[in-house]
Amino acid sequence: MCLSCVPVCLPFLSPVHRHFFFLGTLCWPLNLPIKWKSDGGVSNNSFLMQMTSDLINKKIEKPANADMSSLGAAFLAGLASGFWTDKEQLKKLRRIEAVFEPQKDSEEYRPAMDTWLQATKRSLHW
Fold this sequence. Notes:
disordered N terminus, 5 helices, transferase, kinase activity, 3-stranded mixed beta sheet, mainly alpha, single chain, kinase, ATPase_NBD, FGGY_C
């Protein structure tokens, strides 16, 4: 990553940093097992998905259909109406488009993370 462009990229990288700090605050201290699955618009950005995988040191699965909100609503309606009888049937419908595996040490991102944290703290008092 080009560290000289970090301030310009801060909004772009924000989802990655939020994921990292969420895990560090809630999941890792409690030793919660996590299977990371991504969806939504941000999952269409391979750079962000790879960076997240590197930072959390976990595999991330990206579904073939990234718009899981509408699909989730359809699944719930199908379960309620009896079209599907259980969640296991729905799990079989999930298709994985890409899997992001950790490739870099998370420490390589430390300067960018520190800059993002400083910017976040400064923005709290606007």
